[in-house]
Design brief:
With 327 residues, the protein is mostly helical. The protein has 13 helices and two strands. The chain has helices at residues 2-22, 27-30, 34-44, 64-99, 118-147, 154-186, 195-201, 224-248, 250-253, 257-288, 295-298, 303-309, 311-320; strands at residues 112-114, 300-302.
Amino acid sequence: MNKWFKHIGLAIALLFSAVCLANGGDEQALQPQASDAQIWAQLKDGATGYTTSQSEFHAQPINTYDLRVLKLRSDWLAPALMAALFGMIIIFVLFIKVNGISKLHHGFSGKLVHRWSKFDVSIHWLGAIPCLMLILTGLTLLAGRFFFQPWLGEGIWEAIVYGAKQIHDVMAIPFMLGWALMTVLWTKNQLPKMYDVKWFLVVGGYINFGPFKGKHPDAGFANAGEKMWFWAFALFGLVISASGMLLLFPNLFEPSRTLSLIALVLHSVSAIVICAFSIVHIFMATVMSEGGMECMVSGYCDENWASQHHNLWFDEIKANGTLKYKE
């Protein structure tokens, strides 16, 4: 019985405070009371009451778990995603300015070697284009309110968030399809080898000064850096896809509130990792490696590029008779 009186008293106190504020009560009524502080402390500590609702947290007026997740997003995840995107871009720009790019020592041969099929090129872009769109829209949804909204008008910000949410939802499906196809079809060329260790020890031969200059370690079809990117994409792509499905189709999977919050955190953490790796991958393919971008445009690479960056693979296809030039 005392428990019921306690809950009834709590409800009456909250209702009385709300009525006083709504009706512009006198100054004394508006002053914080000791009982108000006690009530608020009890609510934050997880005080429970009675309701006819049957939801997971039906007896709890304030879900402090939700508040901790929101604080985690604002204090850690949002800045981390900003750093993953803009921080990695800044680092690469400075690195290229100091180090320069990896040039072909013997220039372009003019002979193009077949490396990727048209289907492989297609599924690469099927995953890559949605990935970029998801990074940009995800950045807006996760970190926008903390970094962008203060500089924009309310109407503009509302339109940006609405557009970002629609694009994010639409791009999720092709991204997951591209991720699944790449993971299944490309795994055979991404298995670690002992010579991958030497690749890391000389930073892949991309350093143009000191003892690393001119070093070009052995590499098969995929070098050690590409393999690390692939497995990061495969693992965190799985997490981001699974958590994304729960968040995108809650009525289909009917996750609990706790599972939804965990999915939200895992989705954000995976996005941060994929974002950082994506920036590295993009810079390495488009800027750092002279002639590298051609591979994912036409499916062919220059013969000197193949010999310099993937010598073991190039020697293998020459030896087994599968070497094919573009006519």
